[in-house]
């Protein structure tokens, strides 16, 4: 496996070794020892799988109490995946990183605690899978607007059309009003 720091050093791109032949392929998606050697030590407690159509944007989500680290990947389709640093004491506070994750490229992204996370579906449909280091707690969930002007995330919107978002995402806080981590 190859582990590469992104422009936000704690967010790590994971490129698994893929073994393929005419039957299909095999790859490891989690191996505690290999991930620890790559700088990712995590105890996962919950797996999630979402399916979304093109133009759907989910996020930017995080939990202020019981923060979650997430190892994310795409099982079918393609998404533009984004992490935003919400750690007030971090040198990269308020910065974001985004990249394409797809079933074809098989890349994964490690988003540690202290970051908001979201993704936008580029393909006709996408199945998105993620492992979490803590349980989902709706009472602690917070959301930052996907189109926050201070963050200025470069979402690759199809035909420059606004994405379809959930009501909680449409009514999300602006970055400057959000709760942060210390």
Word description of this protein:
The chain is mainly β and 182 residues long. It has a single domain (2-20, 39-177), classed as Jelly Rolls. The protein has helices spanning 32-37, 167-170; strands at 2-5, 12-15, 18-21, 24-27, 46-53, 57-63, 70-76, 78-85, 96-102, 108-111, 115-121, 125-132, 141-143. The strands form 3 sheets. It has a 6-stranded antiparallel beta sheet with strand order 1-2-10-7-12-5, with no helix packed on it. A 5-stranded antiparallel beta sheet has the order 9-8-11-6-13, with no helix packed on it. It has a two-stranded antiparallel sheet with strand order 3-4. Strand 3 (18-21) and strand 4 form a beta hairpin. The N and C termini lie far apart (32 Å).
Please summarize what this structure is.
Helices cover 5% and strands 41% of the residues. With 182 residues, it is mainly beta. The strands form three sheets. The chain has a six-stranded antiparallel β-sheet with strand order 1-2-10-7-12-5, with no helix packed on it.
């Amino acid at each position: 496996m190859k582990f590469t720091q992104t422009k936000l050093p704690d967010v790590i791109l994971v490129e698994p070794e893929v073994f393929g032949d005419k039957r299909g392929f095999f790859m490891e998606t989690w191996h505690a020892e290999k991930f620890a050697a790559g700088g990712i030590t995590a105890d996962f407690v919950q797996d999630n799988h979402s399916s979304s159509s093109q133009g759907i944007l989910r996020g930017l989500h995080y939990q202020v109490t019981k923060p979650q680290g997430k190892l994310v990947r795409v099982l079918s389709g393609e998404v533009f995946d984004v992490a935003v640093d919400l750690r007030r004491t971090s040198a990269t506070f308020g910065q974001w990183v985004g990249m394409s994750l797809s079933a074809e490229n098989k890349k994964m992204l490690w988003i540690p605690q202290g970051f908001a996370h979201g993704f936008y579906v580029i393909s006709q449909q996408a199945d998105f899978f993620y492992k979490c280091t803590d349980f989902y707690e709706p009472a602690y969930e917070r959301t930052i607007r996907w189109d926050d002007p201070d963050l200025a995330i470069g979402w690759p919107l199809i035909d420059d059309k606004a994405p379809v978002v959930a009501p909680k995402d449409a009514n999300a806080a602006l970055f400057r009003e959000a709760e942060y981590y210390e």
